[in-house]
Amino acid sequence: MSATDSRSPATRGRRHAAAPPLSRAARARRRRDTRAAWLFISPWVVGFLVFVLWPMLYSLYLSLTDYDVINAPSFVGLDNYRRIAQDPDVALAVGNTAFYAALQVPLHVVLSLALALLLNQAGRSAGFFRTAFYLPNMTPPVAVGVLLLLLFNGQSGLVNEVLGWVGIDGPAWTTDPAWVKPGLVLISLLTTGSSVIILLAALRDVPAELHDAARVDGAGAWRRTLQITVPMISGPLFFVTVIATITALQSFTEAYTAYFGAGNSTYSNDAALFYSIHLFRQAFELLEMGYASALAWALFVVILAITLVQLRLSKRFVYYEGEQR
Question: Which secondary-structure segment (H or E) carries 75?
Fold first, then answer.
């Protein structure tokens, strides 16, 4: 090193490590690759801009207007958002939705994990049961709503008939307000198949050496599950929890089909009035599109806030292999 070279070793190292400039042919090839990449993803980009971003921005504008579809929107500022705070049906819908989500999400996650653990021990028959568990996910949600009325009918439903075999007098699931939401939660558990598949794939990646070492140390199956399996699949478990939470907060089709469809006026509608149902009725039954848009954006903000809190908490409880702590 010459006496006149005053650069620090780090600076000299960065200069020596710098990539050589690209040739003209390489730059032309990179531009062609970039154009080809944009060409391939352009259908998705156009679809996102036209069918997702633009409707979202337009609904944000509508949330600041009084719009009934027939007449032109008239600007009302934040009146629709003030109305949300004063609407008694919103308070009822928020309470129903929160109760449903608080009951459904933990049961969904626990049941999915239990079924995935069983499938992981099933051996060659796992393929058959994996398909069987996933098949209810292929059922249209409208059909699930009709199935709810058939299975949980207080007089002739299959659920109460099975309970009667063991001497239990089943409740009026579809007419008693105290049992409407539990019935909806139970019918929703039929569609845990996708979460089961995700968790099963995660279980297959847990190193067998960890279980072997714990078994040698005398750890039982329950302890190995809690201290090895669950921490090792905490990432997929967190993903399933987030998706289940978002889905529960937007629950609509099954409850609407069962309790708000044609001919269902005799049922306990107030107990099944979820937030998304109230939003739908404001938009497409009462044609208050401006107010419905405000309801939609309020739901979006709430879901975003809950998801951000979950992401914040995940730093404490979620383990990713190879992550530096």
Answer: strand 74-75
Rounded to whole angstroms, how far apart are CA atoms 37 and 275? 41
Report d(CA 323, CA 98) in Å as an integer. 34
The pLDDT value given to residue 4: 47
SS3 65: strand
Find out whether 269 and 323 touch, Cβ atoms under 8 Å.
Answer: no
Residue 207: phi and psi, rounded to 5, are -60, 130
Q: What single DSSP character describes residue 66?
A: E
pLDDT in tens, 269-289: 788 999 999 999 999 999 999
Structure tokens at 40: 């391939």
Residues for the chain: how many in total? Answer: 325
Helix axes 79-86 and 289-317, enclosed angle (nearest 10):
70
Pick from 90, 55, 54: which is nearest to 293 by CA?
55
Alpha-carbon 300 to chain mean position: 13
Q: Give, in words, the CATH class of 83-317.
A: mainly alpha
End-to-end CA distance of the chain: 40
Given this model, what pLDDT does residue 321 score? Answer: 66
pLDDT at 266 over 50: no
Cα 183 from Cα 173, distance rounded (Å): 6
Q: Chain-wide mean pLDDT for the chain?
A: 86
Write the pLDDT tens digit of every residue in 81-119: 999 999 999 999 999 999 999 999 999 999 999 999 988
**For the chain, which residues make up each domain, given as ranges?**
23-75, 83-317
245, amino acid identity:
T
Query: Pick the residue with more confidence: 125 or 277?
Result: 277
Tokens of 181: 């939401």
* Amino acid letter for position 311: L
Residue 66 bridge partners (DSSP): 74
Q: pTM of the entire structure?
A: 0.84
